[in-house]
Fold this protein.
Amino acid sequence: MIKGKEVTIYDLARQLKISIATVSRALNDDPVVSKKTKKRIFELAKELGYRHNTFASNLRKQSTHTIGVMVHELNSNFITSVLAGIESVTTEAGYDLIIAHSSESFTKEQSNAQNLFHKRVDGLISSLSFDTTNLEHFKPFEEKKIPVVFFDRVEENSDTIKVIIDNYRCGYMATQHLIEQGCKRIAMVTASLKRNVYAQRHKGFVDAHYDNKLPLDNKLVLIKDLSEQSALECALEILRMKPRPDGLFITNDFVAALCMQALKENGLRIPEDIAVVGFNNDAISRVVEPHLTTIDYPGWDMGVIAARNLISHLKGLADIKQTSTIIVRSELIIRDSSTRKK
């Protein structure tokens, strides 16, 4: 290895006393170069620590073969499964991923978008932060005709392609199930209603009440950041309520599991005293006792669908501008935390 210096094809050509063009062709596995010469070049490249500059090579071809992914968090089973779905498609198609996360910050999301734009990603897959107010930071991608696919948290009124579940239907199903189990006073724990996922789940919650002629008390809707601390806060608020809710719909399994634990520690029986439904079908829903009724949120499928649509567009096989919204199917998984009527 040449100490303190990046080895180039010029160094290889100089030492082997052959042309730069021959070295370049050999490194790109051109059949014009003999196997014997290739062997010499590859052996010296390995000895000197030569690294092929894929980025520069791709720039010459007007493509970096990288896709940017922007998510609002990383410590979530749902996001992990989405990323796994995306990666399964992009790897097979020969694309690398650059992953950035906003930590639920609009400012950081703007910065991430700018960074990925300057890294010349060929396309972008994104889920918006809690407090994102507009899509101006995605305009540079649009102007350069760089395709963007949004998933999960999206701007519903935008004309970009979106991959989502039917959050309204899921909110309605969860609430309807609690009503069918005999719940008369149902509390909901959710996040900012500015985001489509939580606004639509809340609308389903409200409409299920109206359709069943069940009184709706807005004091029972607790808007939280869905953190560990918020789970404990919710449990304490519920315990203080008079009359106490007999049903609980929490739009996050992790928060639901922690809240259930705190309620049980304070003497409440689940589902006898309060029936609970979560959201996401995270692994914790199958571990907590009693096992948690939840909405299946197919993250892998969502990631695969988002990536396939993006790759198809990049390869000229489809035009994502002709597709507006893709809805991934999601269902209620009934377990013991909510089952009163056998």
